[in-house]
Amino acid sequence: MIFATLGPGFCFFGPVGWQELLIILFIVLLFFGPKRLPDMAEALGKSIQKFKKASRDMGTEIESSTGKKPEIGEGKDKQG
Fold first, then answer.
1. Using CA atoms, how far apart are residues 34 and 29, in angstroms rounded to an integer?
2. pLDDT by residue, tens only, the chain of 80 residues
3. Is 14 left (phi over 0), alpha (psi -120 to 50) or beta?
4. Contacts of 58 (CB under 8 A, 6+ apart)
């Protein structure tokens, strides 16, 4: 299936393959140029690093205030 529909007027493509990633990389290279690409990659890496650290810190804070580890999906009602 090429298209998946989420609602009226909203469609998106399926999973992105390696060919699409190469095309996206080529367009980014054309748009920003080879000189700015390493700087952008470094900034992206630092942003991801900060996000992971903030997520870890938040989990640690929740664990220390409640006395238990946060579980994924804990807030959902369990049907059984």
1. 6
2. 455 555 555 556 678 888 988 998 899 889 888 889 889 889 999 999 999 999 999 988 888 888 777 666 655 555 54
3. beta
4. none
Tell me the one-letter amino acid at 25: L
What distance in Å separates the CA atoms of residue 44 and residue 69, rounded to the nearest whole number? 29
Residues 6+ apart with CB under 8 A from 40: 32
Judged by DSSP in three states, 79 sits in coil
Distance between CA 10 and CA 5 in Å, rounded?
Answer: 6
Structure tokens at 71: 């579980």
Counting every residue, how long is the chain? 80
